[in-house]
């Protein structure tokens, strides 16, 4: 294991079309968590939901098979998997003969669990299931139409503040204006984000300014969501808080991190229109 600078990101690589689990590149989560003051017991639980749209292999007779895949990597796993290495790994199945989709499923679970350092759940959707896949937007009040002025494009938690209210509110606020950049290449990462909380009402203009302030920030998806979670937790002190981001795909993969400090059903995995 090593840091992102030693990953395949930003480097010319040749595609392997025969199964090669060594292509997976784990990156420890703790380094970035140290930056945001998360040490010891995690102040959140959650999952990184990955969707893979470019998955293919050969059956035992050499005929190509296709599927989409959903990967659930727990937030308490010690490692993330660098996304380009993930793509290269999935493509290494392209000319690999397998007896069944179940054989593929078992290999994916084993390899990704080893890389993440914790059990990874994997689900496959075969072509006969494609018609059942649906779109849905994040539920909640969209704050994007607020008429604000901003010239700050690096994360500023000081922008966040709450309004006075006689009692706590229970609401979900949504924005489609989250943009950050890849930690290594600087390529843009686009996302919609949902902030669900119980507590003093978060000032919506301050929240929108804060989310937009990520626009020139370089960090992986999972790290951005944890930074957002911790900044809101410290600035607004909600009793309950959940942050869920749906990032647009790159290289046939989208990554959708979810962090929460209260138990409840996991977030849905309906892809948004931009995904």
Automatic annotation (TrEMBL):
Query: Which pathway is this protein engaged in?
Result: tRNA modification; tRNA-queuosine biosynthesis
| Record Gene3D superfamilies | 3.30.1130.10
Give the residues the record marks as binding substrate. Answer: 81-83, 221-222
What are the subcellular locations of this protein? Cytoplasm
> Which EC numbers characterise this protein's activity in its record?
1.7.1.13
The cross-references to InterPro entries, in alphabetical order and at most eight, read:
GTP-CH-I_C/QueF, NADPH_dep_7-cyano-7-deazaG_red, QueF, QueF_N, QueF_type2
Q: Name one GO biological process term.
A: tRNA queuosine(34) biosynthetic process
Domain NADPH-dependent 7-cyano-7-deazaguanine reductase N-terminal spans what residues?
15-124
Return one GO MF term: preQ1 synthase activity
Could you say which residues bind NADPH here? 83-84, 250-251
Q: Which GO terms describe its cellular component?
A: cytoplasm
Record field: catalytic activity: 7-aminomethyl-7-carbaguanine + 2 NADP(+) = 7-cyano-7-carbaguanine + 2 NADPH + 3 H(+)
Q: Where is the active site?
A: 182 (thioimide intermediate), 189 (proton donor)
Name the top EC class: oxidoreductase
- Keywords from the named record: Cytoplasm, NADP, Oxidoreductase, Queuosine biosynthesis
Quaternary structure? Homodimer.
| Reported function | Catalyzes the NADPH-dependent reduction of 7-cyano-7-deazaguanine (preQ0) to 7-aminomethyl-7-deazaguanine (preQ1).
Report the family membership: Belongs to the GTP cyclohydrolase I family. QueF type 2 subfamily.
What is the name attached to this protein's record? NADPH-dependent 7-cyano-7-deazaguanine reductase
Q: Which gene encodes it?
A: queF
């Amino acid at each position: 294991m090593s840091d992102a600078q030693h990953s395949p990101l930003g480097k010319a690589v040749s595609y392997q079309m025969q199964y090669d689990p060594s292509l997976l590149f784990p990156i420890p989560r703790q380094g970035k968590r140290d930056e945001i003051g998360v040490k010891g017991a995690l102040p959140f639980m959650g999952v990184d939901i990955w969707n893979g749209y470019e998955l293919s292999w050969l059956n035992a007779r050499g005929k190509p098979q296709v599927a989409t895949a959903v990967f659930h990597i727990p937030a308490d796993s010690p490692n993330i998997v660098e996304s380009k290495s993930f793509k290269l790994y999935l493509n290494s199945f392209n000319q690999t003969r397998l007896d069944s989709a179940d054989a593929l499923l078992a290999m994916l679970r084993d390899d990704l669990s080893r890389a993440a350092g914790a059990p990874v759940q994997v689900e496959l959707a075969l072509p006969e299931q494609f018609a059942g896949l649906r779109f849905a937007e994040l539920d909640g009040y969209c704050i994007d139409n607020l008429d604000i002025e901003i010239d700050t494009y690096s994360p500023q938690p000081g922008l966040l503040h709450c309004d006075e209210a006689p009692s706590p509110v229970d609401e979900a606020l949504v924005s489609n204006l989250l943009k950050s950049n890849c930690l290594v290449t600087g390529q843009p990462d686009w996302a919609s984000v949902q902030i669900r909380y119980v507590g003093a009402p978060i000032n919506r203009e301050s929240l929108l300014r804060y989310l937009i302030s990520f626009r020139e920030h370089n960090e992986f998806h999972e790290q951005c969501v944890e930074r957002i979670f911790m900044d809101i937790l410290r600035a607004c002190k909600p009793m309950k808080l959940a942050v869920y981001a749906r990032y647009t795909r790159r290289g046939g993969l989208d990554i959708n991190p979810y962090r929460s400090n209260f138990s409840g059903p996991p977030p849905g995995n309906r892809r948004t229109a931009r995904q």
